[in-house]
Amino acid sequence: MARRPTRPKARPARRREAKIAFDAIVIEGALLQPELVTRIATSEPTHQLAADYGLDPGEKLREVVQTKFTQAQSLHARFSRSDKGPAALKRFLSSLFAEVFEFKDLSETAPVMLDGRNFPIGHHAVARRVPIVFAPCEAIDKGDKAFSDAGRQRAPVQMLQEYLNAAAGAVLWGLAADGRTLRLYRANPAMTRPAYIEADLAVLFDADSPRLADFSALWLLIHASRFGKAATPPTDCSLERWRDEGREKGARAREDLRNGVEQALKLLGQGFLAHPANAKLRDELAKGTLLPQSYLDALLRLVYRLIFVFAAEDRDVLHLPQPLETPAYEVWRAARDAYRRGYGLARLRELSSKRQAHDRNIDGWEGTKILFRELWHGQPKLALPALGGLFAPGHVRDFADCHIANQYFYAAIFHLAWLRTDSGLERVNWRDMETEELGSVYESLLELTPDLSGPLSFDFIEAPGHERKTTASYYTPDSLVQVLLDETLDPLIAERTKGKEGKTAIEALLDLRIIDPACGSAHFLLAAARRLAVRCAQFDKPGEASSPADFRHWLREVARRTLFGVDKNPMAIELAKVALWIETVEPGKPLSFLDSHLRCGDSLLGIYDLAALQMGIPDEAYKALTGDVAKAAAEWRKRNKAEREARKQGELSFFEPPREVLEVARALEAVPEDELAAVEAKSEKFRALLAGRDRHRMETACDLYVAAFLLPKTEGPVRTVDGGGAFVPTSRDVWDKLAGARPLELIEAPAVEAAKEARAFHWPLEFPHVFFPGNGRQRGFDLALGNPPWERIKLQEQEFFAARDPEIATSKNKARAFDEKVESLIGDSHDGANRIQDPHWCKGGQS
Predict the structure, then answer these.
(1) Cα(668)–Cα(682) distance, rounded to whole angstroms?
(2) Alpha carbon distance 832, 844 (integer Å)
(3) Three-state secondary structure call for residue 484
(4) Closest Cα to residue 589, out of 546, 560, 547?
(5) Tens digit of pLDDT for each residue in 142-152?
(6) Per-residue pLDDT at 108
(7) What is the pLDDT of residue 470?
(8) CB-CB neighbours of 672 under 10 Å
(9) What is the pLDDT of residues 486-539, one digit of tens each?
């Protein structure tokens, strides 16, 4: 029995924000979960907690923190009045760490050598398990010769991060400060993105507006006791336990979110069908002009849009860049505030948690439609950039002409924005959710089968055999992905950048071509892009620590230039685009054009080398398979062999796609994407390229080649034009098409249809600029990444038929009865085989 979506019936009184609620503290890169940091800061000051922080019996934690805050304020005020030179800075930081944060054994240390590399840490504490770097005043991110290694200048925090990574687990956490900024770092060998917790000391100790709550959070977080005891392993410390707790909680949250997204899809699907004004939508579904799967695809795209906005809002990257000049800033701030008050999804998130907002009005969805429209072309009055991409009208229905009541829409928003926990409601932390983790949620939804069998109802068919995929248990752990990149991408980066610096090294990296032939949600591609972006940022500003803005910029460049992906499921390709867009959004710039790099098709079926067309169709294509007539197949094989043997060698020399196709494809790669007009022009040229006559001719020749393997061989090659007989392409048909001739329509039409239904993928036509790059560049991809097989290669009947014929999938009969149903479906006339090949049946994707 399929589950019905549940609307939130009761709201716990307690709601907890999954964001950092402090002015002076920032969490970058999800080093620790914001909700966890907030919980630490608001912990009940029990006697046991006081003892954990090393307080003497009778001392009260709050009073100690207040005393330390007063002491720190005094130290900072004295430093602020000084010349802020090296001596004054050293006195301030030494007292701050040793007296305020109680690193009582803080001491100066000689540079550390690891594997021949120099790390001038400067100070250590807690029996040398905590490295503490004193950076020059307000220069924590700037390159400095004092922190160099082998002549390579490094920023203080860059040196600290490299030291933690090189320590191989002997040291895990470290601190750095420059008088204005204090940061906490952890070992991060994968170097996927900047990750730290930062405190702004000037804001923290501002005499006019002191922030005791912020200081309390910082003190409880980085107190010397949080790094463990000298005689214990580095992993035995509060910081590591907090980190592990956050990761475990994140795993549980992903499972809850997966269920929440499924519920949101059901509610949206039902809500649109239920509204009286949506007669057109119901009529489309009733007449079959909008298929159930297409309806689900449209709902998925809607949810993708909502998630993108949630993440961009929480990461504060949705709006136009903040101006520096005061008058312009005031205009920008007013526009941003107008957005937040009237159109932001954060506002809808709050409304969704209030039962009284779940009414029959339609203002929630109507306002969101305006938001989507303005994100397409931009709206300065709301400080919104022109993003295009995900928000541009596409081939998927967008519900712009539909209404939905708040009772459905806000319930769907609730399931996307809130998680129920034992302690109440918690916001979904879109800011720090890894997009790869988001992919694990959504890839599980791609196998859902829509059910519109009831009146005005929308649900999912629950068939046995899909449990593994709908729980995403096949999803590749990130640790395995990182190991794969260690062995494949890192050596390639080293090879291509050897002896290069600056722009030359960056261009060498951006010239790489990396493919995932079964990309799913772009998990592997994103992981590769992060590593490349880190290296580009390092080459761009040698010796400096890259800022989050720098990282996003280079991540966008890497994604749009180096990444390529293929997947059989069109909504998986859509998901891959969304994943890349979420990670690479750069304030003020449109979403990148990814259509020419992320393509839908079966990467294992199709033409990889155009030389195969010249050689002709191999005789193996006419081997008799189940349902074929052996004699007919033999006749087709004989005919094809005779055509190949009769053809003179060299009659058709090796060829490449027409020059105009190659020139357009290569030119598209060079088009900048800083303005929406340029992106839209690029999109239009790409669509024209796909529809071009020369490309169509070559694509049809490839389809004829592939169709020879796919089409049934039930009758011999008696070619009549009265509709009788079975027509299977042979080598001569392929050659005729390449030469510009037009094969019989009775041959070409079914062949092309069969290839399209199977989603045959012809690599040189989909990526002509990769296979025929010109300028002396080597053909093909530089690196292929992919998911290892995650289950045995065996047809699982229930899983296969769950999305194709639920009656068979859910059958509880014995094996014989099950086989009889399958046989009755297939029959002798190939109707069943054709049904299995039907695109509405074959919607499964690759993972």
Answers:
(1) 6
(2) 18
(3) helix
(4) 560
(5) 988 899 887 78
(6) 95
(7) 42
(8) 9
(9) 999 999 999 999 999 999 999 999 999 999 999 988 989 999 999 999 999 999
Classify 86 in phi/psi space as left (phi over 0), alpha (psi -120 to 50) or beta.
Answer: alpha
Say how far apart CA 579 and CA 308 lie, in whole Å.
Answer: 9
Distance CA(529)–CA(523), nearest Å, equals 10
What are the DSSP calls for 177-214, one per residue? E-SSEEEEEE--TT--S--EEEEEHHHHT-SSS--HHH
Per-residue confidence band for 15, with pLDDT thresholds at 50, 70 and 90: very low
What does the block give as tokens for 325?
A: 């000049």
Closest CA to 552 of 306, 771, 312: 312
CB 265 within 8 A of CB 59: no
Q: Which of 93, 84, 240 is nearest to 176 (CA)?
A: 93
Q: What angle do CA 160, 163, 168 make, to 5 degrees?
A: 140
Say how far apart CA 415 and CA 8 lie, in whole Å: 8
**For range 392-414, the mean pLDDT:** 90
When the pLDDT of each residue in the chain is averaged and rounded to a whole number, the result is 84
* CA proximity to 733, closest of 658, 661, 639: 639
Which residues pair with residue 198 across a beta bridge? 26, 183
In the predicted model, is pLDDT for residue 812 greater than 70?
no
Rounded to 5°, angle at Cα 413 from 408 and 418: 130
Task: Show the tokens assigned to 486.
Answer: 């260690």
Residues 400 and 369: beta-carbon distance below 8 Å: yes
> DSSP assignment, residue 59?
-
Question: What are the structure tokens assigned to 164, written together?
Answer: 């933690």
What pLDDT, on the 0 to 100 scale, is given for residue 192?
Answer: 67
Provide the β-strand partners of residue 107: 124
For 548-602, what is each residue's pLDDT tens digit?
A: 889 999 999 999 999 999 999 888 898 899 999 999 999 999 999 999 999 999 9
Structure tokens at 32: 């620790």
How much is the average pLDDT of 404-425?
Answer: 89
DSSP structural state of residue 380: G
**Which residues pair with residue 420 across a beta bridge?**
425
What is the mean pLDDT of the segment spanning 255-260? 82
Point out which residues pair with 743 in neighbouring strands. none
Burial class for 537, CB neighbours closer than 10 Å (0-12, 13-18, 19+): buried
Cα separation values, 500 from 153, 155, 158, Å: 16, 20, 20
157 within 8 A of 185, measured Cβ to Cβ = yes
Taking the C-alpha atoms of residue 677 and residue 656, their distance in angstroms, rounded to an integer, is 31
**Dihedral sign computed on CA atoms, order 221, 222, 224, 230:** positive
> Which residues partner with 564 through β-bridges?
515
Number of neighbours of residue 782 by Cβ within 10 angstroms = 16
Instruction: Assess contact for 575 and 438: CB atoms under 8 A.
Output: no
